[in-house]
């Protein structure tokens, strides 16, 4: 302990130190309170001994209050951390109830269904892109066949006109027919073949089909075998004085399809279309020609 002297005697320079190590928090708190500094010493040397001691005690009392407040706050933080750890350990060690197990199973099944639905939607979009590309190719083929059909038709008319002019003397025969008649027969066969191909292309080309449901509802959707029952199609309402008609336009290739309407979340059958099956397997039938 150091001292300094004044006129009335020697006054000790008081130094107070406090060290606390918190094992749980792995922190070290150090507090070093000095009641004097070089400026304070020069000030205290001018004061009487009683005032110096009183001032020193006042500083010590205030710093003690600050230390107590700090320790209380640290202690409360430690208690809260300990309580949170205890509650976590209790929740981990406690066995799950039947309701919690059901909730976990439901969440697991829901995540699997969402994943499968996402994969199905991606595959459906991929198929739609492929279908669009094929539709464009079919349209181009149909246009080319139509042009060829017109050209062949013109050749058939020309060959028929030549054959009607008469057979010149010395004309050659092929398979017992004069070449004029033989040419007309061959061109006519090619023309008929082109017509059949155009019909096949038209049969493979998608068509717009109007699908509707009549009744009172807030939302109506349709699903069917035309897209593998994978994605519902929304129907738009048309309000009238007596009823509401929900309708949409589907682009489908010629064929026979089954479909069902989802009306306000419930499966229903429309009496405006023919049906097939019974009970839960009953569906509407849509024929695209």
What does this entry look like structurally?
With 289 residues, the protein is an alpha+beta fold. It contains 4 helices and 15 strands. It folds into 3 domains: 3-93; 113-204; 207-288, Immunoglobulins (Immunoglobulin-like), CATH 2.60.40.10. It has helices at residues 38-44, 49-93, 98-164, 179-204; strands at residues 3-6, 9-12, 15-22, 27-34, 173-174, 177-178, 207-214, 220-224, 233-234, 236-239, 244-252, 255-263, 266-268, 275-276, 283-288. The strands form 5 sheets. Strands 8, 9, 12, 13, 14 and 15 form a 6-stranded antiparallel β-sheet that branches. Strands 7-11-10 form a 3-stranded antiparallel β-sheet, with no helix packed on it. A two-stranded antiparallel ribbon has the order 1-2. Strand 10 (236-239) and strand 11 form a beta hairpin. Helix 3 (98-164) packs antiparallel against helix 4. The longest helix is centred in the middle third of the chain and has 67 residues, at 98-164. It is found in: Plastid, Chloroplast. InterPro entries: AMPK1_CBM, Ig-like_fold, Ig_E-set. Pfam families: AMPK1_CBM. This is Protein PTST, chloroplastic.
Which ranges are low-confidence, i.e. pLDDT below 50, for 5 or more consecutive residues? Answer: 1-47, 49-56
Instruction: State the helical fraction.
Output: 40-55%
- Separation of the first and last Cα atoms: 111 Å
What structural class do you assign from the helix and strand content? alpha+beta
Q: What do the pLDDT scores average to? A: 74
How many domains? The number is 3
Give a quick account of the main beta sheet: strands, pairing sense, barrel closure: 6 strands, antiparallel
Number of helices: 4
Radius of gyration: 49 Å
Strand content: 25-35%
Total beta strands: 15
**N-to-C series of helices and strands:** EEEEHHHEEHEEEEEEEEE
What does the overall shape look like? Answer: elongated
């Amino acid at each position: 302990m150091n001292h300094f002297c004044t006129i009335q005697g020697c006054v000790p320079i008081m130094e107070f130190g406090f060290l606390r190590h918190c094992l749980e928090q792995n922190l070290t708190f150090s507090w070093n309170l000095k009641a004097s500094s070089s400026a304070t010493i020069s000030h205290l040397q001018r004061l009487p001994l009683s005032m110096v001691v009183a001032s020193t005690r006042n500083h010590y009392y205030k710093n003690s209050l600050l230390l107590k407040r700090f320790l209380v706050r640290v202690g409360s933080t430690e208690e809260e951390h300990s309580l949170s750890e205890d509650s976590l350990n209790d929740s981990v060690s406690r066995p799950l109830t039947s309701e919690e197990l059901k909730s976990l199973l439901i969440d697991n099944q829901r995540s699997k269904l969402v994943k499968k639905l996402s994969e199905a939607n991606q595959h459906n979009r991929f198929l739609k892109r492929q279908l669009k590309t094929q539709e464009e190719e079919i349209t181009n083929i149909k246009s080319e066949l139509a042009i060829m059909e017109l050209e062949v038709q013109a050749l058939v008319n020309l060959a028929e006109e030549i054959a009607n002019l008469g057979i010149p003397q010395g004309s050659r025969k092929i398979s017992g027919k004069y070449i004029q008649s033989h040419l007309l027969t061959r061109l006519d066969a090619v023309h008929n073949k082109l017509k059949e191909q155009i019909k096949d292309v038209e049969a493979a080309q998608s068509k717009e089909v109007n699908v509707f449901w009549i009744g009172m509802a807030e939302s109506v959707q349709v699903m069917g075998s035309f897209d593998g029952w994978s994605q519902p199609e929304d129907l738009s309402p048309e309000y009238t004085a007596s009823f509401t008609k929900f309708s949409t336009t589907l682009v489908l290739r010629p064929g026979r399809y089954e479909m069902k309407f989802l009306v306000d979340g419930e499966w229903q059958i429309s009496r405006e279309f023919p049906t097939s099956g019974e009970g839960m397997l009953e569906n509407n039938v849509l024929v695209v020609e």
